[in-house]
Design goal:
heterodimer, A: mainly alpha, B: alpha/beta, five-stranded parallel beta sheet, about 50% helix
Chain lengths: ~250, ~500
């Protein structure tokens, strides 16, 4: 398993069905990450414009699914149950499946706590309520504990984010994730009816892939500072993985 | 060119915009962090590149522009420096017209340089230019990158609104805009959303980064190889330690690094006494004069220079007493002193490392690392000993200024809503050779200009090259010196 897989999936050996899910999702990351690193480090790769966006989006979506699995195992266990049904038909769309809109981000405006009922709480990965409970405190813990081992450019970027409060880390994750999802999707959905080779050229795909790896690494790092999350690993181990990932995407 | 000649040239070139193209590659080095920035500048998508004065923004823009010109078959780029006095003085529709005229000229220059046909024509209106650029992109079968350097002027925030409107309108699926901004720029107008309309990249050279030492050593090897001569280097430290220390001394700022290396270059040796001299000189001849130089350029923030000086003195004093090289300031105090801190950061006195960090005294604050020149200036004895050298190289416990501290009892004056830049109305004798303007004008030349009824800096800036060259003793070389010192005086 490569460092990104280890960082995203964490220590999951004894988590029953969740272990199986993380193993499965981790295999996808393992499969696509080396290709992604190759695209980033090579100059003038002939396949980057054809396969790069697909690689990037797969990593982004799978990484988010892994984080959802660890924060909210019930969600993915439901999906697993559905997929295990004898009459499960992969040819049709299943509403219970993890969706970008609804499970990662949402258009739902967060209500203040005093007006909230449980059925109106969005459990999407990058919502304000999840930020208040999980991401904000985890980010605060991370930035307070990395100073002595902070040789990483990516960690420096995190510590220099100008956020009004620590929960706003989710705004940074959300904006970056949305932009990457949208840009990478255009590269694979064949919606262009005029040539776009000059827009999705080597440099542009490279920077999208680099930003994707950077984002999912940062999100994974923060996730391990959520005390109630599954498959936690020690922060120093996480920092080691993060450093190795950063080294592998050197230009 | 011989290595000695390159080194000689390197000592004279402080800014990327002054560097001739043939020397640019020889003198400039880029860390891994900067390579990623360059990639984002070359790639499609709007980018704002943020960094203080002398941090290397223009160098990164020029490098990205050069790489596109040399290597890219899918991209056409245009570099435009917005150091233009009529533009600086205009606003509203007038700003848009002048901006568009400059842009049209630059596009045609780039097409000519690249031997590309056709030429570019458009009326000087943003929407028209945007449409014409899309057509040009289609004709060239390339996406277009527009580099706008020096767009932001800290004291003139009204024109920023206009600039960012133009930035947003020009950006499209085949046109990417990139612009350099300063850390103090927070007003982007009502129509530009900095989170969604651009990606912000910060230039940051953190002394804890694994690339820090190697990067500055690389720069020294490229520009000042004689400084690394074994016969010159002291036994008190090795070359890596010297490069790291010098980089940390100037909080990673490239222009200040060049300045301090220039000073060291004049010494026979690189020992602790020589370093002491350089650091103390930098404090008195570079950092403090820089604040005075800045004052008339800050527009509505001009009144904040004196509080900024007071703030700097207190920050450095507190940090020195704590035997540290960095300080955490409580976030509520950050709110009160936001602009003076931005001014100090812009001038290179301090550099923010962490925006939010827990304080021992309670609460959270931002941690700043301090330049070691001003720190040595107030250290007892003003002497860099081997113990101090070793201590300052290491990570240390930061000093703290907590919310209830009386230290920062500094009055911040009320600011007016608009103010002209005083620099343009200052007499030309302000440009005389001094600590603020080490390459300033001589008394004789000032007299010559005054006799020609060129009395103010604004008038000098508006006088044409031909008119200046026609004056006695002002040849091509001195004309360049006049333009360089004007550039330093007027622009950030």
């Amino acid at each position: 398993m490569n460092e990104l897989t280890l960082l995203l999936c964490g220590k999951h050996e004894h988590l029953g069905e969740l272990s199986q899910i993380l193993e499965q999702l981790g295999n996808t990351i393992d499969n696509f990450t080396p290709r992604c690193f190759k695209f980033i480090s090579e100059n003038n790769s002939s396949d980057i414009t054809t396969f790069g966006p697909y690689c990037g989006r797969t990593i982004l979506e799978t990484a988010c699914s892994i984080l959802i699995s660890r924060i909210d195992p019930f969600r993915v266990l439901l999906v697993k149950r559905n997929q295990e049904q004898p009459n499960y038909n992969p040819a049709i769309r299943h509403k219970i499946a993890i969706q970008w809109s609804g499970d990662v981000i949402t258009d739902q405006k967060p209500l203040p706590l005093e007006k909230l009922t449980y059925d109106k709480v969005s459990r999407a990965l990058l919502t304000d309520h999840i930020a208040q409970i999980y991401w904000g405190p985890a980010f605060t813990y991370l930035i307070d504990n990395i100073r002595d081992s902070n040789e990483s450019e990516w960690l420096n970027e995190l510590t220099q984010l100008d956020l009004r409060n620590e929960s706003n880390i989710v705004d940074y994750f959300r904006t970056e994730a949305n932009e990457l999802y949208s840009s990478l999707s255009k590269g694979i959905h064949q919606e262009f009816v005029i040539p776009q080779i000059s827009i999705y050229d080597n440099e542009t795909i490279k920077i999208l892939l680099l930003r994707t790896i950077c984002l999912v690494t940062k999100m994974a790092l923060v996730s391990h500072c959520i005390p109630t999350i599954s498959a936690n690993i020690d922060l120093n181990v996480c920092l080691g993985y993060s450093k190795k990932i950063e080294e592998q995407v050197r230009l | 060119m011989l290595e000695e000649e390159i080194e000689e040239q390197g000592t004279l070139i402080l800014a990327a915009e002054d560097c001739p193209p043939d020397l640019f590659k020889k003198l400039h080095r880029f860390s891994q962090h900067e390579e990623r920035i360059i990639l984002s500048l070359v790639a499609h998508g709007p980018v704002l590149l943020r960094g203080g004065r002398g941090s290397g923004k223009s160098a990164l823009f020029k490098e990205a522009h050069n790489r596109i010109k040399e290597k890219s078959s899918t991209t056409f780029s245009v570099y435009l420096s917005l150091r233009n006095l009529p533009l600086l003085r205009s606003q509203g529709v007038e700003y848009e017209e002048k901006f568009c005229e400059l842009l049209i000229q630059s596009i045609n220059l780039a097409l000519k340089e690249n031997k590309k046909h056709p030429s570019f024509s458009a009326t000087p209106a943003v929407n028209n230019i945007q449409q014409s650029l899309v057509k040009l992109s289609s004709k060239l079968k390339k996406r277009i990158v527009l580099f706008f350097d020096d767009a932001a002027h800290l004291g003139r925030e009204t024109s920023l609104t206009e600039f960012f409107d133009i930035f947003r309108i020009l950006s499209s699926s085949s046109i990417s805009c990139k612009a350099t901004i300063y850390p103090g720029i927070t007003k982007f107008g009502t129509r530009f959303d900095v989170c969604n309309d651009a990606t912000v990249r910060n230039i940051s050279r953190n002394e804890n980064s694994e690339f820090f030492a190697a990067f500055f050593l690389d720069v020294m090897k490229a520009r000042y190889p004689s400084l690394l001569d074994d016969n010159k280097t002291s036994h008190a430290f090795d070359k890596i330690q010297l490069a790291t220390f010098l980089g940390k001394t100037v909080v990673g700022n490239m222009r200040a690094f060049i300045f301090i290396c220039n000073q060291l270059h004049e010494s026979q040796k690189n020992g602790l006494p020589e370093l002491t001299r350089c650091l103390v000189n930098m404090a008195s001849d570079y950092y403090w004069p820089l604040l005075e130089e800045l004052k008339p350029k800050l527009g509505i923030y001009e009144l904040l220079i004196n509080p900024s000086i007071e703030l700097a003195e207190k920050i450095f004093d507190t940090t020195s007493k704590a035997n540290s090289t960095s300080i955490i300031i409580h976030r509520e105090l950050m709110q009160k002193f936001v602009k003076p801190l931005e001014i100090l950061e812009y001038a290179g006195f301090i550099s923010r490392r962490e925006v939010s960090i827990a304080m021992k005294s309670g609460g959270r604050g931002s941690r700043f690392t301090l330049n070691l020149c001003n720190l040595l200036e107030i250290t007892h004895g003003k002497r860099l000993t081997s113990e101090l050298f070793a201590t300052w190289l290491k990570e240390d416990q930061p000093a703290e200024i907590h919310i209830n501290s009386p230290i920062l009892d500094i009055k911040i004056p009320e600011l007016s809503s608009d103010k002209e830049l005083s620099i343009l109305n200052l007499p030309i004798k302000s440009l005389i050779k001094s600590k603020a303007y080490p390459y300033g004008l001589t008394a004789t030349k000032i007299e010559i200009l005054q006799k020609e009824q060129i009395k103010t800096i604004g008038e000098l800036a508006e006088t044409s090259d031909e008119q200046l060259r026609s004056l006695p003793t002002i040849g091509k070389k001195y004309l360049k010196r006049i333009r360089d010192v004007l550039g330093q005086a007027i622009w950030m």
